[in-house]
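2024-03-11 09:14:02 DEBUG pipeline.ingest accepted 1 chain
2024-03-11 09:14:02 DEBUG pipeline.ingest length=168
2024-03-11 09:14:03 DEBUG pipeline.predict start
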Amino acid sequence: MPVVLRTPQEVDLKKVGDLHFRSRASAYAGFLPPEALNFGGPDALGEWWSERWRWERETHRMTVAFDGPDLVGFTYLGPSEEPGVRELGAIHVDPARVGTGVGKLLMADALEHLRPRAVLWVLEENEPARRFYEKGGWRPDGVTRVAPMGGVDTVQLRYAKDLVGGDA
């Protein structure tokens, strides 16, 4: 069965929280301490996404990827602080599906809605994510920030991509 991309329904947001929890815990386990990987748990993240989507659905775009009844990934896009720039705020894939093309499918869909210029933030230590973005033409633009994650300060790099015309 092919992966289907669509806008989430309210009932999907609990699944988004669960997948987000598992994806972050898997991706960050090598460099964040175990206590920082809790993130309030999958139920808390499901509630967080439900509330966030309720308030931001007019200005943001969420796409969920389903393989049959299983949520296998999602993206979240919105405006950047920089005028005329869109931000890829989240792209997460079920850890069991990393490397199967789900991330590439979600990214291709996101790029269609991020024109003309897009940015994203990635943890400096997250080498697999940085390789994924760089293979897709994203480049660090020299902007960094320090932001807490699970009570731990993390260094984040901003990546940018110009999407003029059909150059996604």
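2024-03-11 09:14:41 DEBUG pipeline.report The chain has a mean pLDDT of 93.
2024-03-11 09:14:41 DEBUG pipeline.predict end
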